[in-house]
Design goal:
mainly alpha; hpI Integrase, Chain A
Length: 297
């Protein structure tokens, strides 16, 4: 049988080739599994691990003060790794099968109000230079289509359907989805594509949609820098990450009557339970409005 490191490398190759996981996810899985293997310090091989060994490892994580979310994430990585090994015939049993994940409190995501979104998108972009036009298109697209920032930076020009005003998105696990573009996003994108992008590109050639000031592909870090810049200008009271636009997109759709399964499809969620967190946001907003407006609340 291959040693533990060889088995881990086989698993990471499987996640890359078969599952299409991003580099960020691969590194997280690799780190969590390596920490798990190192805990046993070569005293036991993977095939020798028992239910009690897994419990001992989880107890160690708790003693180290790791939050339940982190404990649950590590257990997910370990469980997935062991299931892969069993499926490939390297293990006969999976010692994690009867172990429940630590119960974690679901965090209500940060969401901008529709007024805050309007203020940010309509009052902040008061210049007409090439990069400001690009930034406006980025903001409008994030809010209009609920894209993850990783999906945004990987968009190419030919992912835009000009006739139907749609964008083709390659999501997690190389799962493709089609998302509509709102009128405002379409207008901002058209201005960027027809005028600003060619000037930023400066006779270079690339299919990447959003470019930095050197005509190269924008990074996720670059997007975060851009968002921080405009949020500071808008003087919003909440901390805004790129994902806040995705949260706001989903919540505002539900607030205005969208079917949750449609929202699930637009977000590219595999499980409906992932989308349901936004129904809690909507309920909390209803309660907030009720308390602030009803005379006897």
């Amino acid at each position: 049988m291959a040693n533990d490191n060889e088995l881990l490398n086989k698993y990471l190759t499987f996640l890359t080739v078969e599952k299409g996981y991003s580099q960020h996810t691969l590194h997280a899985y690799q780190r969590d599994i390596q920490q798990f293997l190192a805990f046993f310090n070569n005293a036991k091989t993977i095939s020798e691990l028992s239910y009690l060994d897994i419990r001992r490892y989880l107890a160690n994580l708790q003693n180290l003060g790791l939050k339940k979310n982190s404990q649950a994430r590590k257990l997910t990585a370990i469980r997935s790794f062991l299931r892969y090994l069993k499926s490939q015939g390297f293990l006969t049993k999976i010692p994690t099968e009867n172990i429940s994940s630590p119960k974690t409190a679901k965090k209500i995501p940060v969401v901008l109000t529709q007024k805050e979104i309007a203020k940010l998108l309509e009052e902040t972009f008061n210049k007409n230079d090439n990069l400001t036009v690009r930034d406006k298109a980025i903001f409008e697209l994030l809010y209009s289509s609920g894209l993850r920032v990783s999906e945004l930076v990987n968009l190419q020009v030919n992912d835009i359907d000009y006739y139907y005003k749609l964008v083709k998105v390659m999501g997690k696990g190389s799962k493709e989805r089609i998302v509509p573009l709102g009128t405002k996003a379409w207008e901002a994108l058209q201005i960027y594509l027809s005028d600003s992008r060619p000037k930023i590109l400066k006779n270079k050639e690339t299919k990447v949609l959003f470019l930095n000031n050197q005509g190269k592909k924008l990074t996720t870090r670059g997007i975060r820098f851009i968002i921080d810049k405009y949020v500071k200008q808008a003087a919003l009271a909440v901390k805004v990450s790129p994902h806040v636009f995705r949260h706001s997109f989903a919540t505002h759709l539900l607030d205005n009557g969208a079917d949750i399964r449609v929202v699930q499809e637009l977000l590219g969620h595999v499980n409906l339970s992932t989308t349901q967190i936004y129904t809690h946001v909507s309920k909390s907003r209803i309660q907030e409005i009720y308390k602030n407006t009803h005379p006897r609340a």
